[in-house]
Amino acid sequence: MANQSKKLPIQHIIGYVTSVILTFVAAWAALGSNLPVMWIVISIFLLAVIQAAIQLFLFMHLIERGVGNAPWNMMFHGAIIFAILIAGSLFTMSFGFM
Predict the structure, then answer these.
(1) CA distance 76 to 36
(2) Between vectors from CA 12 to CA 24 and to CA 66, what angle results, nearest 5°?
(3) What local confidence, expressed as pLDDT, does residue 75 receive?
(4) Which of 9, 22, 25 is CA-nearest to residue 59?
(5) Four-residue CA torsion sign, 53, 54, 59, 64
(6) Which one of 3, 16, 42, 46 counts the least CB within 10 Å of its CB?
(7) Cα 62–75–88 angle (5° rounding)?
(8) Left if phi > 0, otherwise alpha if psi is -120 to 50, otherwise beta: which for 68?
(9) Is 16 helix (H, G, I), strand (E, B) or coil?
(10) What would the pLDDT profile of 20-75 be if each residue is shown by its tens digit?
(11) Alpha carbon of 53 to those of 11, 63, 89, 93: distances in Å?
(12) What pLDDT, on a 0 to 100 scale, did the predictor assign at position 67?
């Protein structure tokens, strides 16, 4: 117990600060910029992809080893559920089912 050093979770702090900054940049692009709508949508999409990558690699420990393929297996199943939800939502909105 005496050998345990109190380390700050630097990666988590950097990830959190970066995520907050990206969120503020996206909010500024949507609310305060004079960019055309298409560029606003593209920039928010790119910022969202960057933020998702930060979340996956820094907070969800996607690059850690030790359990085999568990993180990639969970990512695959999450992507399948995501695709089903999006397809169902688009189907419902397109054909007016309630």
Answers:
(1) 35
(2) 135
(3) 79
(4) 9
(5) positive
(6) 3
(7) 150
(8) left
(9) helix
(10) 999 999 999 999 989 899 999 999 999 999 998 888 888 776 666 666 666 777 77
(11) 14, 11, 24, 29
(12) 61
